[in-house]
Amino acid sequence: MSSRNAAATRQRILEHARRQFARHGYAATTVKGVADAAGVSPNLITRYFGGKDGLFLAATRTEIPVVDSFDGDRSALGSRLAASIVQRWFAAAEEDPLLALQRASGERPEAAEALAAFLDTNSLEPLHRYLRGSGLDDADARDRAAAIDAFVLGVSTRLRVLRSELGDPAELQAWLSTTIQRLADG
Question: To bridge 80 with a disulfide, which of 1, 69, 96, 98 should be the other Cys (CB 3.0-4.6 Å)?
Fold first, then answer.
């Protein structure tokens, strides 16, 4: 198999794994199920990823471009963050690695720890730095960042994990925007 075909096969496996982990969680997703969906042998998943744990780790690697929302004044932070959040939730609904991590965090302590560490590094700390840079003292910036982070995670869990129903994107964005802005303003 050429390296191009191997890379394409690996990518196809990851796409199916992301979808299944996000939709069904860690426990209900099987190597055989992912292999069948991707049209490959389960042995290939073992060879590429070392098994289910390695596949899960590879499938849940992600980024959240929270810093993209920091270009501008704090008075419009809520609207910029809400637009970014809603775009992600609707665009990658069935394949979002963050959703897979959220669903697995109740089943696997390692997933919960990975999600917490990921959010601290990619959401909470950058938000804290942005708010501090916008003129808030360190403690106030940290508290507001923590409130926004907890709010967004709570809404995500409620709508994406427990309900799997996001509703109308424009209404959701408006509500998130207003609420995030209130938290940012203190």
Answer: 69
